[in-house]
Amino acid sequence: MDPFHNGNKRSSISFGPSQRQPYSKSNYLAGANAPPSVAQDLGRGPSPFGMSGNTTSGSNSKRNSGSDLSAAYYTNRSPMYSPLDFSPPVFSPNHSQLQQARNYAANIPVVSNLMNQSMASVCEYQSHYPLFGLDWSVDDYVCLGSYKEDSRNKLQVLHSNDLLSWENVVDANVVYPVSKIQWVPSQLHPRKLATCSDSLRIWNVNPEERHLQEQVNLSLCKYNRQHPTSPATADDMKVIGTFPPITSFDWNTVDTNLIISSSIDTTCIVWDLQSSHYVKTQLIAHDSEVFDVRFLTKSTQLFASCGGDGSVRVFDLRSLAHSTIIYEPPSSPASGPNAGATTPSLKGSDALLRLEPSPYDPNVLATFAADSNKIIILDMRNPESPILNLEGHTCSVNEIKWHPTKRNVLLSCSDDCQALYWDLNNSFMEINGSDSKSPTASGASLEDSDGDTVMADGGAKANQQEDPLNSNNDKQVCRTLDTPNMMYVNKTQEINNIAWRPQRGDWFGCVSGKKFQNVRVF
Fold this sequence. Notes:
With about 525 residues, the protein is mainly beta. Helix content is about 5%, strand content about 35%. It has five helices and 32 strands. The chain has helices spanning about 95-105, 220, 235, 345-350, 425-430; strands spanning about 80, 120-125, 130-135, 140-145, 155-160, 165-175, 180-185, 190-195, 200-205, 210-215, 245-250, 260-265, 265-270, 280-285, 290-295, 300-305, 310-315, 320-325, 350-355, 365-370, 375-380, 390, 395-400, 410-415, 420-425, 445, 455, 480, 485-490, 495-500, 505-510, 515-520. The strands form eight sheets. Strands 1-29-25-24-23 form a five-stranded antiparallel β-sheet. InterPro entries: DCAF7-like (IPR045159), WD40/YVTN_repeat-like_dom_sf (IPR015943), WD40_repeat_dom_sf (IPR036322), WD40_rpt (IPR001680). This is YPL247C. It holds the Pfam family WD40.
């Protein structure tokens, strides 16, 4: 579901079974003659299916699809399964692989007796409204935003002590559907969150007193319609909806007084919460709507944006006279008097909706276009051309999130009712052409080439935690990866949004229809 694109996407929230086209690009569920890889942790419940490394070759990569129809049914009860696992269930060739996968997943008792914590792997919360906005705090509070095409929308704050059940601790009415929610980074008291829709707002949250109140409307302050120290008056509220809508924002993780936002009026605004009128600077960022903007990893000066013109641009607050275009959509060949002209439909397909900088490598970003099933991985050391395309989804991608603690692991969700888990370490190592072991195998801290501190995972996969992309490569060839390491299949409804549990990334949350689900990954 895309709240910024054309109107027909707004009706994509469904409340009944949905039918999808057969997956024809790669056989997710094909097996290979190799021993199974399954691990379980009895203390924490069922673990995900065995993970196998992705492989890429030339401009395209696919796993060996030799099927072994005599393989036993997979018996793991985890809600996530691996299309790369070597002992998949047997499915009939007469039906869609995706539809059979859904039916198979629907028959797995992913949540058994809730009194037995070791067996719980998915739980859900049923809302009264269709949902889109989602974020998960460091102390297991989840904020949800409704998506209704009227003036009766809601913000809901949920909490869980055991991740087995969720309680609605506080809610608030909002006029317009919220396109993004973010908790203040690494801060528990006072507990705050920000939302964007018609305006950029900061909220005070006090679950103990069941209190959720708007602290300040930054958009009103920008236009001098609200005093920074006073709540909005009735006259101020009359102009709500007349400002350019805020499409996205990002709360800086280094300096939480800084927020940057994007708008459909082609501008980005950097907000300083300690400033008298909050606005630090405003700039024209793109030639059309700006759909997302993000601070680069561990930086208070560098940020990147994407928008309707299909480009990704990087800015430096110390020198805003220029920007660096690191990606532009490939131009389609044309001839005749209309050569070079861009049709509205082509422009719409080029529009980039979301931007996700890697939390461990400030040079790597992920993005995707409107109505596209392809995720684009960019490296700023190799501008203009992607280094990797992920094409595992069969319908439009809705959201992407890097794993908070594991390097080069990406989660994506789509209208195909799937959440895909991508471990890109092997692919990056092949792109880099390096087989050497990582100096981070011990799990110690180190600094990358940009001076940023990164934390590496130890363990069996630790040799994949090295910086996989170095600046010595003159030109990278874009490769395609179409098979994820793991996947979670929702039963009937599109997955509209996702969020990792920020502490360890052992769970992720997703919203589809009126449901919020938290899914165990590890």
